[in-house]
């Protein structure tokens, strides 16, 4: 791992070799289906999408005709979005920022707000996603993470920045709608297969990504059938410093008082093995020219396995924990302390599945449209964790320094030898097995009716009912094994085995462990078995983390739309109101010592959400849009569960809050779009959001002997309605090809956009997850058989939580990706991709006050892919 020289020629040899084995196919182009969208193509007219430029042209047409502020990405061909990950494709959109986990995009923020609703064809896709180092599990909001579904299943990605009353509520920042193709949108039978090989630099592996697509029609074109699938596998390495925080500790004497002090220095490496399977299918039946029935289904399975080793130095929590302390900006950033040393090896597996089944019927005749839609969405997880920990026999003296380092330096003193098993106390050894079984499921039915009068005015109304159920059951058994019992599972970490790409002085050689599932699970559950023989697991129930939530929502809307002229300027407008009533009930446990008592908590609220959009066609190619609305975001399910989870390893306490109010944003938007060519445009917008009851994690520290009889200082984190805030900003973008240049330079193009979001809550702090500046620069070239794309994106720092009233930040980051494509002939094409070309620039940093006061650092690797496409 430490030797990078071998990756030059050798890496490209692997890629070329993989290309010779790949069998890929991509089909003739797809007329993108408009299901779940807002701007339909003319009936029966096929849009052929081939290449970068054609996809940009189609996206511009959809944006121009949309009844709301919206940006669109369309596939260049069947199953060929510009990035292999949905989130990474969306980061090219003006005003969109993404969060990465394990080096892959997982979630998005729109105009600085991370509370974004994610839909598939207007429906909720439920699922579970994980952070780099979650407590025991971490549910990502109310929808599946964007890393859980393969991008090749979708023909179009929509980012709706202003709402329509007819669209489901639930996106404070906006809504991302992933649109799947439908079989009746294809003119001819189509079959495609595509295969790629992906190479990850640090793990030195070349792994497959295979996609397939097929569609045809029967009965004189009245019945259409479509199926698509993708399989991806990737092994990656993430090098981290993490789990630190700066919390107040008391000091006496000169310069004393409560001073924020580091809690934990932990050096850790993850090797993550992910495989992703996605399937999508649809059957359409045109019963009559006016009435069409569509049945469709989507399935996704994401298996994430990780192995990690860590070395941890925990500082004491009493008075005067650090001697020879150095204080900068009010924070202890260097000094000496007698800390607790812990090392561990851990294996963690979290297979997740998402299911979405839907049935839709649509009738259109003489201005009347009636559409009924029903679906069932389900997400599951069965997470297991096996860990063997070692702990030093006594407090270990250490000198730490956070200054002028990528990660803090740590030098150990005394007689402790981190590579010698005799330095560890067998009484502190730990074998722990965890299991989490989670279920999310939603039944939804809706009915929409609209009528367009002869005057051109359309009146629309509808109702939507949702029944959401979420359940989490956790299990945890642990035991202190003997020294001899642990010896077969010891593993020596040598210098160069861990954090090889992160400079600095810290323990690079230490004794870790190599747990196996069978040993840890059987040993732990034998020591602490489940007393209920009918329980979901044989491990001891961990009731602190259990909850069972039921939420029912009924929503209705009324909307009027039409067009006309004002002072000779044509316009299209819509306005309406959406009312949603929500009731929820959650069962969880109150834990006092060893006694857990089941309790039930309830909450209910009603929201009224008006919205209006108007677009002025100042000229044929220049549009001005004005919109005003209110949007809301329900709290995430895990945040609503008031259960309290105590992690004895990290001395952390997390839990939810059933009384959370849904944040509501009152917002206004003025934007313009100037279409300078079929695939070229200049756009801009000024926006304002006034957010009430914003939710963020609030971190404190203290002692709770009910949770921890040893009376140690614990770190508590719970969500609260912490803030009201205002966000104001602007965005500007350009998409332009150099048609005015002589050939071959007329194939050059550029996509550039910049977003400025200035936020402030009532205490003067920036809003959580809002980066003030972000931008994208994409250089394009497409001429004849050759195409290329170089994409750079940047976002600056943002607040991510509050610790004892102080904001903690996630640092600025940028990423550079590249793509090259070559059409060998009419049937075959070669493609090469390189992602994360500047790993240190894309590293994730979290810190308090400034970058010196580091809480975490995560470095991901470069990856490269090669593929061959064939058209039939």
From TrEMBL:
Segments forming domain TonB-dependent receptor-like beta-barrel: 409-837
Subcellular location: Cell outer membrane
TonB-dependent receptor plug domain mapped to chain residues: 63-174
UniProt KW keywords: Cell outer membrane, Membrane, Receptor, Signal, TonB box, Transmembrane, Transmembrane beta strand, Transport
Family to which the UniProt record says this protein belongs: Belongs to the TonB-dependent receptor family.
Protein name per its UniProtKB record: TonB-dependent receptor
Cross-referenced PANTHER family: PLUG DOMAIN-CONTAINING PROTEIN (PTHR40980), TONB-DEPENDENT RECEPTOR-LIKE BETA-BARREL DOMAIN-CONTAINING PROTEIN (PTHR40980:SF3)
Membrane topology per record: Multi-pass membrane protein
Residues making up the signal peptide according to the UniProt record: 1-31
InterPro entries: Beta-barrel_TonB, Beta-barrel_TonB_sf, Plug_dom, Plug_dom_sf, TonB-dep_rcpt-like, TonB_rcpt_bac
Residue stretches spanning the membrane: none
Major location category of this protein: membrane
Source superkingdom: Bacteria
Any Pfam family: TonB_dep_Rec_b-barrel
């Amino acid at each position: 791992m430490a030797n990078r020289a071998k990756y030059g020629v050798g890496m490209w040899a692997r890629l070329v070799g993989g290309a010779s084995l790949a069998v890929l196919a991509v089909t003739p182009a797809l007329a993108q289906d408009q299901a779940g969208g807002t701007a339909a193509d003319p009936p029966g007219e096929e849009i052929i999408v081939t290449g970068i430029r054609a996809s940009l042209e189609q996206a511009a047409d959809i944006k121009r005709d949309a009844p709301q502020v919206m940006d669109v990405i369309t596939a260049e061909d069947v199953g060929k979005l510009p990035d292999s990950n949905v989130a990474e494709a969306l980061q090219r959109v003006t005003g969109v920022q993404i969060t990465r986990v394990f080096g892959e995009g997982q979630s998005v923020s729109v105009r600085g707000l991370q509370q974004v609703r994610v839909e598939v064809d207007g429906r909720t896709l439920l699922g579970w996603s994980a952070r780099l180092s979650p407590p025991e599990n971490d549910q990502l909001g109310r929808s599946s993470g964007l890393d859980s579904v393969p991008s090749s299943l979708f023909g179009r990605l929509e980012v709706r920045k202003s709402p329509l009353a007819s669209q489901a509520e639930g996106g404070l920042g906006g809504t991302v709608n992933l649109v799947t193709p439908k079989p009746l949108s294809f003119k001819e039978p189509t079959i495609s297969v595509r295969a790629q090989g992906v190479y990850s630099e640090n793990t030195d592996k070349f792994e497959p990504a295979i996609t397939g697509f097929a569609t045809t029609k029967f009965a004189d074109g009245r019945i259409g059938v479509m199926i698509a699938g993708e399989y991806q596998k990737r092994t990656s390495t993430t090098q981290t410093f993490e789990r630190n925080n700066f919390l107040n500790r008391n000091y006496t004497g000169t310069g004393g008082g409560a001073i924020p002090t580091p809690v934990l220095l932990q050096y850790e490496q993850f090797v993550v093995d992910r495989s992703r399977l996605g399937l999508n299918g649809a059957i359409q039946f045109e019963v009559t020219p006016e009435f069409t029935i569509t049945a469709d289904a989507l399935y996704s399975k994401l298996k994430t396995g990780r192995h990690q080793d860590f070395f941890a130095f925990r500082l004491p929590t009493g008075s005067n924990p650090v001697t020879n302390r150095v204080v900068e900006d009010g924070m202890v950033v260097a000094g000496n302390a007698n800390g607790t040393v812990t090392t561990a090896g851990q294996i963690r597996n979290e297979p997740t599945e998402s299911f979405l089944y839907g049935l839709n019927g649509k009738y259109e005749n003489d201005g009347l449209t009636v559409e009924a839609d029903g679906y069932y969405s389900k997400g599951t997880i069965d997470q297991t964790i096996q860990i063997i920990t070692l702990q030093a026999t006594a407090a270990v003296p250490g000198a730490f320094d956070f200054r002028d380092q990528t990660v803090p330096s740590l030098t150990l003193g005394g007689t402790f030898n981190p590579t010698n098993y005799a330095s560890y106390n067998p009484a502190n050894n730990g074998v722990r097995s965890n299991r989490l079984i989670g279920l999310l499921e939603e039944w939804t039915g809706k009915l929409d009716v609209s009528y367009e009068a002869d005057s051109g005015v359309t009146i629309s109304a509808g109702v939507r009912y949702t029944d959401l159920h979420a359940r989490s059951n956790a299990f945890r058994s642990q035991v202190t094994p003997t020294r001899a019992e642990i010896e077969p599972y010891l593993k020596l970490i040598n210098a160069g085995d861990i954090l090889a790409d992160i400079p600095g002085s810290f323990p690079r050689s230490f004794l870790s462990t190599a747990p196996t599932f069978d040993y840890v699970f059987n040993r732990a559950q034998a020591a602490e078995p489940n007393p209920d023989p009918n329980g979901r697991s044989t491990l001891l129930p961990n009731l602190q983390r259990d909850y069972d939530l039921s939420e029912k929502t009924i929503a209705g809307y009324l909307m009027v739309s039409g067009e006309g002229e004002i002072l000779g300027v044509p316009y299209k407008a819509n306005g309406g109101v959406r009312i949603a009533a929500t009731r929820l009930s959650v069962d969880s446990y109150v834990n006092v010592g060893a006694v857990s008592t089941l309790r039930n908590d309830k909450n209910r609220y009603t929201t009224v959400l008006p919205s209006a959009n108007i677009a002025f066609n100042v000229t044929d190619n220049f549009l001005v849009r004005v919109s005003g609305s209110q949007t809301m975001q329900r709290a995430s399910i895990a945040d609503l569960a008031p259960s309290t989870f105590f992690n004895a390893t990290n001395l952390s306490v997390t839990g939810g809050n059933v009384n959370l109010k849904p944040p509501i944003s009152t917002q206004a938007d003025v934007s313009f779009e100037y279409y300078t060519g079929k695939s070229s445009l200049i756009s801009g917008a000024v926006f304002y959001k006034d957010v009430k009851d914003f939710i963020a994690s609030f971190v404190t520290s203290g002692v709770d002997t009910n949770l921890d009889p040893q009376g140690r200082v614990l770190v508590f984190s719970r969500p609260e309605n912490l803030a009201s805030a205002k966000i104001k900003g602007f965005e500007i973008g350009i998409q332009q090809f150099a048609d005015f240049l002589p050939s071959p330079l007329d194939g050059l193009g550029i996509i550039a956009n910049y977003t400025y979001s200035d936020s402030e809550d009532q205490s003067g702090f920036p809003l959580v997850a809002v980066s003030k500046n972000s931008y994208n620069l994409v250089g394009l070239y497409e001429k004849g058989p050759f195409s290329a794309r170089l994409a750079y994106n940047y976002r600056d720092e943002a607040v991510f939580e509050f610790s004892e009233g102080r904001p903690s930040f996630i640092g600025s980051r940028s990423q550079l990706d590249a793509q090259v494509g070559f059409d060998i002939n009419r049937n075959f094409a070669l493609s090469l991709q390189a992602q994360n070309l500047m790993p240190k620039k894309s590293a994730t940093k979290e810190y308090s006050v400034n970058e010196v006061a580091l809480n975490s650092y995560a470095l991901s690797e470069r990856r490269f892919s090669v593929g061959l496409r064939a058209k039939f």
